[in-house]
Design a protein that fits this description.
319 residues; mainly alpha; two-stranded antiparallel ribbon; 2% strand; 12 helices
Amino acid sequence: MTDLAEPLPGVVPARIAHPARGYVLYLGAAVLFALNGAVAKTLLLGGLEASDLSQLRATASFLILLVFVALTRRPALRLRRGEIPLLLVYGIFGVALTQWLYFAAIQVLPIGVALLIEFTAPLMIALWFRFALGQPTKPVVWIALVAALIGLAIVAQVWEGLTLDPVGVGFAVLAAVALAVYYVTADMQMQRPEPRDPVSLTMWGMGAAALFWAIVQPWWAFPFEALQGSLHLFGEAGPSVPVVALVAWMVVFGTVLPFSLVVVSMQHLRASQASVVGMTEPIFATGVAWIVLGESFAPIQVAGAALVLASVLVAERNR
């Protein structure tokens, strides 16, 4: 197997030309994803199930991108047979399951805690390079892995017993695995001899996710009545916002735009670099959740979160 950290023979990866641009693009995506966490949790608390929200998000995003690509880059609508398997893996595991598992986790966990667990994905990528690709791993990576686990234990405050919902923790861990798949498969797409443009790649990823959900739970069973009415932001005293407006925000500013920014950024960044920048999302999301939903960390939990993020960063810098 080819090391993902190296270009394929005969291929000149275009994305290494402007790494600073890649970092800026990914930071923008992280901010939008963080805002979307509060919107998604508001919808979940309002009665939508995680699977319904994931299906709505993927399908609506696919349709919007399909129209855009059809109007601006029609040749990108053609699928090459050789790229279909990887696109299916990217869309089902990297998009559909990442979204669903994250939504399921934040139903019972604070957004910041769920994202902190999910964003241990870079450590899983490092383990993938070591055990699947046979890439040598420095001892400091294993030290960082242990430190990250200690940091998560501090965030969970294990000395006070099991304070976090174990089912939610399980969903968050699986979301980390799915996110690692997303990073690696997106990276592999960018390494193809004829890589797709970021918008059509995002479109087909959402399309595969939409197809997956249409098979798992047909549209005639979707609870459209849950999209009626309004929900309160900032608690009961906050402004009342129509559910359809929150859904529209989630689809456009919480999905189409940030996912496209992520894929564009990966024209300039490696999977390991992108996943490190993505670690800013838990920081942004924790701040948004504190303002919008009243979720906050105790000082000791902040220290644990910092240890986790620092450990992942050290592991990636030394992979």
